[in-house]
Amino acid sequence: DLHADYPMELSGGRLRLFVDVFNIFGSQEPIAFVDTVEMTAGVTNPDFLRPVVYQAPRSWRLGARWDF
After folding, report:
1. Going edge to edge, which strands form the sheet with 59-67?
2. Are 67 and 61 in contact (CB under 8 A)?
3. DSSP-assigned letters across all residues of 11-65
4. Residue 1 per-residue DSSP state
5. Which residue of 5, 25, 61, 68 pairs with 13 in a disulfide if CB–CB is 3.0 to 4.6 A?
6. What is the pTM of this model?
7. What confidence category does residue 19 fall into, taking pLDDT thresholds of 50, 70 and 90?
8. Of residues 23, 27, 28, the one with CA closest to residue 58
């Protein structure tokens, strides 16, 4: 992740413009797996260790903050 901001001093206070970038490299690695080894006693789960959740794609957040 990446965060950058730009503060500006104004007569009534301080304005801060910022940007946040999440998953900056666009990685799509799995982050959760099926962790159930057996479906029932003695029956192995064929989906064991199969990825079920991946990282969220790259996203941006732009914002401004006014401190007075």
Report:
1. 2-10, 13-22, 59-67
2. no
3. TTEEEEEEEEEESTT----EEEE----EEETTEE-TTTT-EEEEPPPPEEEEEEE
4. -
5. 68
6. 0.67
7. very high
8. 23
